[in-house]
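Hi L.,

You mentioned the student needs an example of a multi-chain input paired with its predicted structure. This one should do, with 223 residues in total across all chains.
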Amino acid sequence: GQNIDQPTEMTATEGAIVQINCTYQTSGFNGLFWYQQHAGEAPTFLSYNVLDGLEEKGRFSSFLSRSKGYSYLLLKELQMKDSASYLCAVSDSNYQLIWGAGTKLIIKP
Amino acid sequence: NAGVTQTPKFRVLKTGQSMTLLCAQDMNHEYMYWYRQDPGMGLRLIHYSVGEGTTAKGEVPDGYNVSRLKKQNFLLGLESAAPSQTSVYFCASSQRLAEYNEQFFGPGTRLTVL
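Structure written out for the whole complex:
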């Protein structure tokens, strides 16, 4: 079967750094996506990794290790507006996205 | 450029009633998708379309039908609603079905079936 695992909830402090992990087991791999979803809103694209390594985009970075079936999203200099759910999704052998349940990130002042 | 839009935003149905959810996109994308999102679960694919006039089943298609008569529109129908179909429904579209197949989402429809 196909499986994406993420922590259900994390709490961090404004201005700090947080790392959200994602492990996956899928039939094939054609890339891994991270999306952000604020409560009551649509998911929006954050990052895409298809090769091993780190992709940096401003305060957000995403890392991939294909051999370990592992990715993480790193958020630096946390702001209150970063309070949201972060969804990990893997593009499988048919290019369909398999989604994790999401990690709810709570930022405290 | 509105992106992906969905109507309605909210709906309450009684068991056995029918309804159609409309999705429209103005990005000229070939691929369109219907997902449902339930608490504690990842987005689950209901049906998808790889082009005008085509549809295919996703992970959880039972109880739903779809149509893609025009490239820009993708309709999701519930013929006889059940309480298990209470969920938030998202439509999405993408330009390609290949690597870097970023999907763009509509704002969602919150459906309650009593």
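You could point out the following to them. The two ends of chain A are 41 Å apart (CA to CA). Chain A touches chain B through 23 residues (CB under 8 Å).

Best wishes,
N.
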